[in-house]
Write a structure and sequence with these properties.
By secondary structure, the chain is of the alpha/beta class. The chain has 17 helices and ten strands. The strands form two sheets. The protein has a five-stranded mixed sheet with strand order 2-1-3-10-4. A five-stranded mixed sheet has the order 7-6-8-5-9, with helices on both faces.
Length: 389
């Protein structure tokens, strides 16, 4: 089942001076969580309600957008969202003439109805089957910009008492494994690892647990293994709540594997073509700063401070020590990778319809960023890290 709405309590929106009413915002996201079905699919009834929101603000309250350049950006507060935080903190969005409002969400799947109804214009987070299902239901959505790709530094962790019992992927058969949500991209990591041993999801017991709670679940034996992401997985290892067992990057193909996306309301983008492209040039500036810090450039301390300011989990030393996710400096997707993820969603029943690359991704935003910003070069020539190049 999807995470309960109570998981959202205690997660205030960022205090940036002019934000939506916090309790009202929480109720919106909680309703979306409650109405998502196990396949990450947005029910048609909610889609219908979202259309009513577009037709009459009186039915759902005042529209979010307060001016023609006001853009609501929903993000999952992890290291992957740092490029967005940099673009905001360093004024790149403001320089582009954008009045940005950043909101925290638990997952991109909760944001699809918000995007479709116009209550948010952009959402950033891991791939989700909800995106495919939203498109299939006619929601005005499109992937605009890549926000994370291999190396991802995702890991499968196991309980400390199982280090001598779980040694190969085949040993996962019959074991309980934690994922963060149905249809989330983390499941793709597990799908690839299980597939290397001829196993499927039917051979294991999947339990849905939020990333921050996976360490406790491993410690008390509620699950045998968990697929986790930075910085949460690294914190689990540091606190000795679980053992780092497998780096899923070793199993992900095609490479680079795109797993984080910026999704936009495509109707809004068509009505604001110049604004939307300026938005993603600003995001690309933030992405390039992130990549320099990823390669341990001179701006790493500055970027870590921005992570902390915007609520990414972990203290300074942890964020500096833990590995970060890579990404394309221009936000370009590996389309082969996107289609391979789609194949998994379809095979395992998370989606009922496959879509074309043209329906899934609008490459104009990354192309415009590359054109305006030119070739990206890593400043730290000594860096041996892959990705972010």
């Amino acid at each position: 089942m999807p995470e309960p709405s109570s998981a959202l309590e205690g997660r205030p929106f960022l205090d940036k001076g002019r934000y939506l009413n916090k309790d009202r915002g929480r109720r919106i996201v909680a309703r979306v969580n409650q109405r998502a079905n196990p396949n990450g699919e947005v029910p048609l009834r909610f889609f219908r309600d979202s259309l009513f929101c577009l037709l009459g603000a009186a039915l759902c309250g005042p529209a979010m957008a307060q001016s023609s350049n006001h853009v609501v950006i929903a993000t999952v507060p992890t290291i992957a969202s740092t490029s967005t935080y940099i673009a905001d903190a360093k004024g790149y969005l403001k320089d582009a003439g954008i009045d940005a409002e950043i909101q925290n969400i638990d997952s991109v799947s909760t944001a699809m109805p918000l995007l479709a109804s116009g209550r948010a214009q952009v959402a950033q987070g891991g791939f989700s089957a909800a995106y495919w299902n939203g498109l299939a239901q006619g929601m005005p959505l499109v992937m605009a910009f890549e926000g994370g790709s291999t190396p991802l530094n995702h890991h499968i962790l196991i309980g400390t008492n199982l280090k001598d019992k779980i040694k190969t992927p085949a040993d996962l058969k019959g074991r309980s494994i934690a994922l963060n949500a149905p249809g989330s991209i983390i499941g793709y990591d597990l799908y690839k690892v299980l597939g290397s041993a001829g196993l499927t999801f039917k051979d294991v017991d999947i339990k849905y647990i939020s990333f921050p709670q996976m360490g406790i679940a491993l410690q008390n034996g509620a699950v045998d293994a968990a697929v986790n992401v930075p910085p949460f997985g690294d914190l689990i290892i540091e606190k000795k709540l679980g053992i780092n067992w497998i780096d899923t990057d070793d199993y992900l193909k095609p490479s680079p594997t795109s797993v984080v996306h910026y999704v936009i309301n495509s109707d809004w983008a068509k009505q604001n073509v110049d604004l939307a492209h300026r938005l993603f040039v600003a995001m690309a500036r933030g992405t390039r700063d992130y990549c320099q810090a990823y390669h341990h450039g001179k701006n790493r301390e500055e970027v870590i401070a921005i992570m902390q300011k915007y609520g990414v989990a972990g203290d300074h030393d942890s964020l500096d020590k833990f590995p970060w996710q890579a990404r394309d400096p221009n936000g370009k997707f590996n389309i082969d990778s996107v289609l391979d993820v789609q194949d998994w969603y379809f095979k395992d029943g998370y989606i009922k319809k496959k879509l074309t690359a043209e329906e899934l991704v609008d490459p104009s935003y990354s192309a415009e960023a590359a054109k305006q910003l030119g070739a990206f070069e890593v400043a730290n020539k000594d860096s041996k890290l892959g990705g972010c190049r």
